[in-house]
Sequence to fold (125 residues):
Amino acid sequence: MEIKEYYDEIRRTKAHLSKELLAGKHAAQPEPELVTDQFGESEKQATCVYVTSVRNRERGTQAGHVSLATLDLAAARIVEGTHRVATAEEIEACLKRQQEQKRYHDQTEAKFDSRARQFRVSLPE
Fold:
């Protein structure tokens, strides 16, 4: 694929995703996220969509990893054949897994804090 065709396909895919998001066909981040460019220099509001990785031997990707991507990145990954738009079931499972991980992290942090308080020593001045 020529470079011009590649970017034209990304633009078409992004426009298609935007239309489908407006029509409510895909789950997106409820609020536009503040994202930073790859160099960490500029920030902008961006609409994000959930994508799922597909197995691609050429690129070494595994199937089934759900992530949130801006429309630009999602369109590029879809054109490259490494991702597809996530289904509602995949998104729900991903969010549930994230909540479980957060709960586990919070519990571990609370245990650590309570144990750390036991060993605090105040030194005389």
Q: What stands out?
A: The longest strand covers residues 48-53. Residues 88-119 form one domain. Residues 98 and 104 are 10 Å apart (CA to CA). The helical segments are 3-22, 71-80, 88-118.
